[in-house]
Amino acid sequence: MRMGLLLFVLLLVGCSHHAPPINSRLSDSITVIAQLRDQLGSWRGTPYRYGGMSRGGVDCSGFVYLTFRDRFDLQLPRTTSAQSDIGTRISKDRSLAR
């Protein structure tokens, strides 16, 4: 269930409307998937804590923020609202979650 939530949150961030600068660490999908799986494994079992950004407790947007910062050297906004304001919006029929 947490992996599904992670993928949903990452998809949500990826479907936003102002694309960040292209990062070479995101150009190889196999590497990206490996990094995401490793990050998920590292954080598995961490409790949810509103506003949290540590292994003592983390919230969804904090986890996305830390994942992009630590794994892909990309600085995203901290909040869900601000994260949803970046990237390029796509229709549901163009998404991977069909």
Automatic annotation (TrEMBL):
InterPro entries: Murein_DD/LD_carboxypeptidase, NLP_P60_dom, Papain-like_cys_pep_sf. It comes from the Bacteria. SUPFAM superfamilies: Cysteine proteinases. Residues 1-19 form the signal peptide. Transmembrane segments: none annotated. PANTHER family: ENDOPEPTIDASE NLPC-RELATED, MUREIN DD-ENDOPEPTIDASE MEPS/MUREIN LD-CARBOXYPEPTIDASE. Belongs to the peptidase C40 family. This is Probable lipoprotein NlpC. It comes from Pantoea ananatis (strain AJ13355). The gene is nlpC.
